[in-house]
Known about the structure:
homodimer, about 160 residues, globular, binds zinc ion
Amino acid sequence: MEHRIDRIKKQLHSQSYKLTPQREATVRVLLENEEDHLSAEDVYLLVKEKAPEIGLATVYRTLELLSELKVVDKINFGDGVSRYDLRKEGAEHFHHHLVCIECGSVEEIEEDLLTDVEKIVEGQWGFEVKDHRLTFHGICRVCQKQAVSAASTNESGKE
Amino acid sequence: MEHRIDRIKKQLHSQSYKLTPQREATVRVLLENEEDHLSAEDVYLLVKEKAPEIGLATVYRTLELLSELKVVDKINFGDGVSRYDLRKEGAEHFHHHLVCIECGSVEEIEEDLLTDVEKIVEGQWGFEVKDHRLTFHGICRVCQKQAVSAASTNESGKE
DNA sequence: CATCCAGTGATAATCATTATCAGATTGTAT
DNA sequence: ATACAATCTGATAATGATTATCACTGGATG
Ligand SMILES: [Zn+2]
Ligand SMILES: [Zn+2]
Ligand SMILES: [Zn+2]
Ligand SMILES: [Zn+2]
């Protein structure tokens, strides 16, 4: 934790930005909720618990700054809000997501998976890939099981 | 053109929706600008040229409806507006996009490219893929050429 | 005809995000 | 320490996209 804060601090300093208390509080919230996909509002409410004096605008500004520095990636799952996702240590690219259309859960995929596809895109389309966004929409493991058990219940009930 | 309108008409009827004049005008605009990625506002302005009496709300409603019927796909390139992209005839999945971070141009990729990746996701993550969104961010062919020629100009100018 | 109801247009309301601006904080030169 | 400039912050207003509301229309049904 402290280690990662230090790295981010250095990254900020390298562009002559400071790690102010507000920025640090925001980063801590992101680190503590790394598995989630928080909106700016979500982050704001969580930061407020520790640093009640912080303003919403500052949270937006901080997230924007972290986004420029590639500390976080901004992503949109189509529900009208931007979400902010910490980039894993040393990750070259943004990771992928599995969004369940039944329960709304979001799972992460760390593996790159796109190496071959990017080669094709570079070779065949002459497009120099810098980053990507890949999201799959479908049915998660849990919802699949529920569908199966619901079906067998119906069957035994001779519906 | 008429052929595709007919198919969409049937698709609407199959869910007991009607192809009203407003809806038809909207669909025609989408067909005539298939290569673009229009926002709701864009569509509204274009439809107004032919059917000046149409209201913005109706355009939003129509796009939402077409989206549910999978006639169009709603996509967000991160610029704060939703864009609507006609699904190609008979296409199983949404197509992919190449967004240039220099000039903002958007190129399309019809080829699926993700068959293998989806197999992995289904096998290894147990996730049943229904659809996907894949966007590459990078430098398009044109901007690459410009960068090269700019560099050689500098060189010959002994900058 | 009377009734019903999906669909429509105008416009108000909502909600996320951005802009503004005065005050606080920091670093630095004197 | 004092003065000064630059950065940063919080409150709040403004913006802009999208959604909700509501009265009205036109076609279908009996
Ligand atoms: Zn699920
Ligand atoms: Zn994620
Ligand atoms: Zn370009
Ligand atoms: Zn497209």
